Amino acid sequence: MAGGVSGGANVNGHVDDPGGVIRLFSGPENATARRRIAMIGTYVPRKCGIATFTGDIVEQLGKFHSDISCDVYAMTNPAKPVEHHGIAGEIGQDDRGAYARTARRINESGVDAVWLQHEYGIFGGDDGEMVLDLVDRLAAPLIVTLHTVLADPSDRQRRIVARLVERASQVMVMARHSRDLLMQLYDVGDARITVIPHGAPDRPFGRQEQFKAQFGLSGRKVMTSFGLLGPGKGLERVIEALPAITGRHPDFLYRIVGATHPNLVIEQGEAYRERLQALAGELGVADHVEWVDRFVETDELLDQLEASDIYVTPYPNLQQSTSGTLSYAVALGKAVISTPYLHATELLSDGVGELVEPHSSEAIARAVTGLLDDPMALEALQRRAYARGRETIWPRFADGVAKLIEKVAADAPHGGKALLATPGLSSFYGMCDDTGMIQHAIGRVPDRRHGYCLDDNARALMLVNMADAMDEDIADRLSATFAAFLNHAWNGETRRFRNFMNYDRSWSEHTGSDDSNGRALWALGHTALHGRTEDLRWWARGLFDEALPAFEDIESPRALAFATLGAACRIEGEPDHEGARALLQRSGEFLNRLLAESRRPDWAWFEAVLGYDNPRLSQALIEAGRILDQGEWAMAGLSSLQWIASMQVSASGQFRPVGSDSFSHAHEALPFDQQPLEAQAAVEAAMSAFRADGTQRWVDHAHTAYRWFLGHNDRAAVLADLTTGECRDGITPRGPNRNCGAESILAFQCAHYGVVALARSCSFESGKDMFPAGDTLENRRLSEKPAANFR
């Protein structure tokens, strides 16, 4: 193989990496590429099988599917440096920070998919566990090729592979047995596993004599083994078989092609090769063994194989998953004799090769002499191998690879759906009963085992306040149900709200979390302003006032933010409400101070860790500053919201919610799992920002966040059904979560009404029609109603 890369661009320099652990290169641009993927693994000219395989993928895609381009990120070992050209970057295998920085660069590059070549030894940490620091941070769909699937992995090895397959949209293996192990050991569904046999060259059949002449081997029967020498190859057994073979066929030559494994050279020098040579001398067959003691590039390797009659792989380890040279030998029409390791068992089935028991020189001798004694049988075996090889030649391999990439790569989301189309409510109704809204669902089926929670019922009450598309009698009944839930959740003894209720209506706690109490106060403030009837608004004002004193000493940032949004509603309906003003004053001072103390040049945020409902912190500070005429707070809220908004938009301009994996990582935003609650918060915080400064960017950001529900996301997954109003519970690395729980349904529904209210506000501010072309008459009708501002 002539390198397997496209061109030899020079290194441009080191970017954002003083230690040189990640080096960025200026690889060639493919302006006609329809798909672009990031390829991660060792890479040519590094001398290892994974590097050759990675190079093969890039080279063969370039030949047969030029509409797919590859940005190669090569793993490097500082102890064995190589010079890469024409690639996107290098990753030092032992530098943990390099993995995170590379993930960020890949995310920012906007590739359609990432393809990782996995072998335990090419990544840093015990069993290569540092690879997890990379895959946990990748946003694009992930393909993982597992070059080794162990039948009996260690606990750490199992944990690493389990995480990889959990993150992967597709797992590629090269043998059916590896697929079966994945299904048995890791519970991976067959639909997520793609089997693509190792590719091989397409050369004419039967050119042995031509290439024997080239290497000075004319007139001899030649058998070859190839690969980096080491005790795991089983070559001792072949040498021990030579006396029996050469006794019958004196012209026989066994060629061992390949250098000693570099790790073995470091530990022992050439002691292993010398032991093999000594063994051949002791058995009197040294003249029948030829040593090609060097690393052979692919093109020469193929020539060496063409000069052979027989290829032998006597591996004692029967768990060997894949051998690239075995695939090459079969495709070139060589008679193959092998121990029954996994790859050989599959590739040589149906009489394509001969399998012999491991650790047996006698079995090898019988197989070789049997073929040499019967030239017709030898040629027949060679022709069967050549026929099998037509299934794995490079064009076929490249077609399989391209199909895999197309299957995984996220299509550009399609428009078509009117942005303001009113979602149905049947899914919302299906999660409700006469107690309240059930928390969780299995798929679309309400899961009664988990009962109810205050958080969801508070949000549900706010949705009914806004949902002017809801039938009036249904809305009145549901308002009463959710209000009754909040009313019953208030614990007069503790002066706090309870949160979790069992399905039998018994409470599972006396006091709920600060966050649930904050959401309850928010819902009460919202209902005091936007409740559907005066009786409902009167009730909400009373319970709001009773619950408000509990927030005098709460310092949970989100709980205060939620309560602040409720207090802002309360003040809009009753500007002189002293308790609500006092809460806004305390919350504004607290959040502004928290932001100032936590801010640093690259992290303009309230906390070192990004959590959930992040934009609510900025939204609360904006509202406190706007209502109390504190310009500093409003500006701080706007700047922090602009920062979090920039953190939640991908390189391709799509909304990418801060993933729940980020919760344990300081000063970092990980892409999964993505939650609907974050998109809703982005929409509604953008509404507050628009009210504060009136700039178009907040309208644009709200639309970007809302489109996340409709398929404009990292997996092109349509999470929300406009017909039923249901919404999936988020996006995992493999795609959408199938469940449709209360929080997700409410997030989608409330985000919709937030976008509608923002469109109305824009229309009122500018006198322009802000509804997209093709919007429905129902939305036109809704636009004529008074806006129910949602904070």
Automatic annotation (TrEMBL):
- Highest taxon in the source lineage: Bacteria
A GO molecular function assigned to this protein is: glycosyltransferase activity
Residues forming the Glycosyl transferase family domain are 209-386
Q: Which Gene3D superfamilies match?
A: Glycogen Phosphorylase B
Q: Does the keyword Transferase apply?
A: yes
Matches recorded under InterPro entries: Glyco_trans_1 (IPR001296)
Keywords for this entry? Answer: Transferase
Please provide an example of a Pfam family that matches this protein in its UniProt record. Glycos_transf_1
The identity of this protein, by name, is: Glycosyl transferase
Question: Does the keyword Phosphoprotein feature in the UniProt annotation?
Answer: no
